[in-house]
UniProtKB/TrEMBL annotation, chains A, B:
Matching CDD domains: CobA_ACA
GO BP term (any one): cobalamin biosynthetic process
InterPro entries in UniProt: CblAdoTrfase_CobA, P-loop_NTPase
Transmembrane annotation, as ranges: none
Source organism superkingdom: Bacteria
Protein name: Cob(I)yrinic acid a,c-diamide adenosyltransferase
Gene3D superfamilies referenced in this protein's UniProt entry, alphabetically: P-loop containing nucleotide triphosphate hydrolases (3.40.50.300)
Entry-linked Pfam families: CobA_CobO_BtuR (PF02572)
Protein source organism: Mycolicibacter minnesotensis
Gene Ontology molecular function: any one: corrinoid adenosyltransferase activity
Amino acid sequence: MPQGQPLTVPDDNLTTRQRRNRPLLMVHTGDGKGKSTAAFGLALRGWNQGFDIGVFQFVKSAKWRVGEQSVLERLGALHTETGEGGPVQWHKMGSGWSWSRKAGGVEDHAGDAAEGWAQIKERLAAQTHDLYILDEFTYPMGWGWVDVDDVVETLANRPGHQHVVITGRRADPRLIEIADLVTEMGNIKHPMDAGQKGQRGIEW
Amino acid sequence: MPQGQPLTVPDDNLTTRQRRNRPLLMVHTGDGKGKSTAAFGLALRGWNQGFDIGVFQFVKSAKWRVGEQSVLERLGALHTETGEGGPVQWHKMGSGWSWSRKAGGVEDHAGDAAEGWAQIKERLAAQTHDLYILDEFTYPMGWGWVDVDDVVETLANRPGHQHVVITGRRADPRLIEIADLVTEMGNIKHPMDAGQKGQRGIEW
């Protein structure tokens, strides 16, 4: 267990309190399981501290996160009802985003991803949330659907005290460079490799 | 995103349904962050499916999990109040366990760990929970406070449909061998390496 003792004292002219309160950019990458799950586990902790939480799911299918969405939205409702914890917003890129649901028409994943990022930029500028979870955001970054340099510059210069977690495989080196915490989830053994199918309560 | 398609079809004479419903032994190991956080994220998912969840914290200090404990116990209370989700029990090895709180006396961590494992064995035999989280259990295993062969045999032969997640560094190879899913959380970059101290909402 880390007991909160840093290995080195940085030469950054910050007080311990300032360092303690520094907003973090966290990246969960690698081929193994647990990247998103750990991000949502972090949301639990943030909710308990009263953080305003915004989740942005950059995936076409929302099939795999219904459990977390259901519970985190329930916790957000609990905040509204009783004042416990913090508020939670969950936005997913299905056919368009919840703030601009399109009426049918042509699917445009690249456009949707760019729109999602534009929305997040606005919220970062307005300091809307305390914790942002950009789930599977490495994919639109990797596919060129959003501009990586813009993402990196925006995140590096975000105002105030906003924590950001980004999940997904193959995180761009420029993102790794500016991140405060990077965990690589490595796949040592996975039941699907042995023919096991996904199941209730584990995969969703 | 895995879409639930196994890479191979195993020669185990099980139907897809039987394989789908197979209980899993999961291990989150490695030096990086996210091992316990991902386990508690999994608990979110399980709670949403109505799982009966038992958490057993094999750590001396409970300082670092108060956020998760608070939220998961709140979810357990919500189940009692409204029937939503599933029940949650959270047991930690502080000075003894909650089921046998000692009145002062000599601290005996090895004895407490063995007692915790004996309790878990009883519960596995009685099929008490649907999901067991044995947080930081690799340490008492590594220190010889519990018998690794007994742990491995008990887990491998547990009855019914009980999922188990074990977290902690340096998981024993015998445990890895019988596990269905093993994720290694690798530490690519950690804020404490750069002098950052732990902070509210992130570390607790």
